[in-house]
Amino acid sequence: MINQKNYGLGTARSAIRELFEYGKKQASILGADKVFDFSLGNPSTPAPKAVDEAIADIVKNSDPIAVHGYTSAPGSIETRTAIADSINRRFGMDAKADEIYITCGAAAALCCTLSALTFSSEAEIIAIAPFFPEYRVFTEGAGAKFKVVDADTVGFQIDFEKLEASITDNTAGVIINSPNNPSGVVYSEDTIRKLADLLDRKSKETNHPIYIICDEPYRELVYGDIEVPYVPKYYDNTVVCYSYSKSLSLPGERIGYIYVPSSCEDAKAVYAAAAGAGRAMGYVCAPSLLQTVIARCIDVQPDLTDYKINRKLLLDNLTSYGYKCAAPDGAFYLFLKAPNGDGNAFSEMAKKKNVLVVPGESFGCKDYVRISYCVATETIKGALPYFKELIEEC
Ligand code: PLP
To answer: How much distance in Å is there from the Cα of 125 to the middle of ligand 1?
Structure first.
């Protein structure tokens, strides 16, 4: 006898993984240069040199037992202090080490936070389309109900009328993600203020705090003169889920954190519940070598050179062919309106030309497709003529 729900999750691949696996198979038949795979959000820029040097130095020159040993369950005090200090320097907060819980990336941070906030089996978590598809899995895994608010497809900010209509007495939290996967859009300060006002009002009406779960693995990946508002400065009941997967190109190393600011209602209890969830799921003591690396490299910033080149190349060409997309101010994705109005059909058409773009359906926007431009620039150059053909065929 096995758990059928988990069996279902373990045997069904996500649309993204499905395409990625298909791409690998096609590449082995046709040759890698004949397949244009834009499916995965795997950083194409190597980790900064300072990170690799820190890894080498730590392994070579530290106590050989401590370097790979367990840290305390929420993470080493040195790393949590370094993270808290950096939050304070950058965002003018008053973070303390004991408000930081180090995790295996944003995925674990979200799972622990969602589990912490699931106050009953009726609790609801709201996501705003377009959203990272794993939110549904994480939310349902935490035992809460997952609700989706349709996208504002004009500017890909938030449709506040729809959000307000979806809030009930059971709403535990709203997950936001900016810069956004898949749209690349950054929520404006005006959007964050409106969200804070709405949730303040609704928290009073429902008589309990409605938390913002702020998922921000792409915070550092922004292009041009764009500010990404730091949400805890606008809304007290915010829990931040951060990851170094994208900013330091370390997705396989599994390192990130939860920050529960003291401004949160019941902050200590929320932190303890997140730590308890981590304990229950075995997410304790994130990789210790990486914790030490993060403490050393806390001020290292990503090199955006390649993403900037790719973004411009794609954006300039695709829009000149007539494609429409959301303002891609951050992350490394372009969210394209399918020219035939159907993301699934368009993705299939593109697949026939070995151009792999993810249908928008799993992100909650059927009419769109996602292009990940964290690829070699040559892949974009090779795919452009096919994108031109595709729009002409629609
Ligand atoms: N949240 C978003 C929006 C993502 O795009 C991803 C990964 O692609 C994650 C969370 C998970 O990140 P991590 O690799 O840090 O677990």
So the answer is: 18
Closest CA to 334 of 306, 361, 373, 307: 373
Pocket of ligand 1, beta carbon within 6 A = 41, 105-107, 132, 177, 181, 215, 217, 243, 245, 251, 256
Residue nearest to atom 7 of ligand 1 (CA): 41
pLDDT, average across residues 30-34? 94
Q: Report the sign of the C-alpha dihedral through residues 119, 211, 178, 78, in that order.
A: negative
Residue among 110, 178, 215 to mutate when testing ligand 1 (max atoms within 8 A of CB)? 215
Mutate to test the pocket of ligand 1, among 16, 178, 246 (most ligand atoms within 8 A of CB): 246
Radius of gyration (C-alpha) of the chain in whole angstroms:
21
Tell me how far apart the alpha carbons of residues 318 and 311 are, in angstroms, rounded to a whole number: 10
> What value does the mean pLDDT take over residues 266-285?
97
User: pLDDT grade, residue 29 (50/70/90)?
Assistant: very high
Question: For the whole model, what pTM was predicted?
Answer: 0.97
At residue 13 the predicted structure's pLDDT band, cuts being 50, 70 and 90, is confident
Name 240's Cβ contacts closer than 8 Å, sequence gap at least 6: 214, 216, 231, 232, 258, 259, 261
Above 90 in pLDDT, residue 146?
yes
Is the pLDDT higher at 13 or at 43? 43
